[in-house]
Amino acid sequence: MKTIGMIGTHGKTSILYILEHILFYGERNVASLGDLGLRMNKNKLPNDIAWMEAIEEMKKNDVEFLLVEIHDNTMFFDMAFDCVILSAMDKSKNKDVLEGYKRLICNAKSVLLNADSKGSLELIKGISNLYVITYGLNSKSTVTASTIYVSEGRIEYNYYLQRGVLSAGSKEIMIQEMPIVCNLLGYQNIYNTIAVITTALLFDINIEESVKALTCIEPIQNRLELRKYKDITFVFDMAKDNRSIKMLFETFQYIYYEHLHIVISMENLEGILSGALEEFLEDFSYIRNSNIYAVGKRKKILDNAKKDILVDALVRNHIDFQYYSDVKQFIGKDALRNGEDSLIVCIGFHHRLF
C-alpha cells in the first residue's frame, strides 16, 4: 500500500480530494483520512470506526493508496510515508507541530514542496538527504505552469515539468508539457492541481490519465463551490480563517456579476471575518458597494462576544447590512428574487443551503 501525506497550513484538503479523485477515476482502490472524514473509494466510513479497524478494512479491500491529511495528528508524525506533499505554510502552526512535520519530512521517501511559500522553504532548512521536488509559479521550480487562464468556475494552464525526476519505483520521468483544463474555482487550485498531477506521475500514473480525470471533477461541498440557479450564481465557502476568506474575495474578479450579495453566517464565523474587516475593505473596496446580510439567531449572537464583533465592525465602518435569524428566511425572501446576473456569496455555512 502506497502512503501519501499532506502537510502545511493551506491546501491540504483540496490536494487530498483532487488526488483521491484521480486515483478513483483510474479504478485504483484508494482510502483517505482528513477533514472530509475517513473514506474508502470516496465512500465515507462510520465516524466511530477505530483507526486499527480501518486499517483492517483497507487490507480486506486491497487498498493501493492511503492518503492522509495531517494537522496535529501526532500518531502520524513518525510514520514513513512514500511521499509527503508540503503545501503553503504560514506561522499559525505551533512549535510541536512544526517539529512533527520535520520528522515526517525526514522519514519520507520523497517530498513535493510548494516553492512559492517561504514558510515551506523555511521548514526544510537544515534537513539533509531529502529527495525534494519543487512546484510553483516561479521559473526555478521543478514543476511550474504557464499560459494561465482563470475564468468563472474554470482554470486552464500548461503544466510544465522542467527537469527530469525519479518515480517512486526509481523510473526516470522525462521533461514534459501538457495543457490542463479543470472545472474548479480559484487561482490556488493551479497550485493544488500541479501538486496532484506531479504526485500521480511519481506513482506511474501518466499525465493523460490525470488530464481526463480533472475534466470531470466536482468541487468540494462548501469550499469555493459554485452553483447556478437560473440567472443567479451562488458561491459557497465555509471560510475557516482569514486566508480562506481572502482567497474567496480574490476569486470574485473571475466571476461576472451585476449585483453582489454577501451572506455571512454569524454563528459559524466566530469573529474570523470581523477581526480583519478593515484589511479586507482596504484590499477589496467593492465590499462597500455590495449587499450584506448577517444570518444567525440573535440570542446566540448576543450571548457570545466574538460573534457580536462583526456587527460592531460593520457599524464602525458605516456598512449597511440586513439581519435574518435563519438562512432559510433569507433564501425565501431575497435570495432567489435578486434578479439576473446576481452573485450571491454564502460565507461560513457548514451545510448545503439548498
Largest sheet: 8 strands, mixed
- Counting DSSP H or I runs of 4 or more residues, the number of helices is 12
Mean pLDDT: 86
How many domain units?
2
Count the beta strands.
19
How would you characterize this protein structure?
With 354 residues, the protein is an alpha/beta fold. The protein folds into two domains: 2-214, UDP-N-acetylmuramoyl-L-alanine:D-glutamate ligase; 225-347, Alpha-Beta Complex (Protein-Tyrosine Phosphatase, Chain A), CATH 3.90.190.20. 32% of the residues lie in helices and 27% in strands. The chain is built from twelve helices and 19 strands. Residues 299-307 have low confidence and may be disordered.
Distinctive features:
32% helix; 2 domains; 19 strands; single chain; alpha/beta; Protein-Tyrosine Phosphatase, Chain A; UDP-N-acetylmuramoyl-L-alanine:D-glutamate ligase; 27% strand; six-stranded mixed sheet; 354 residues; eight-stranded mixed sheet
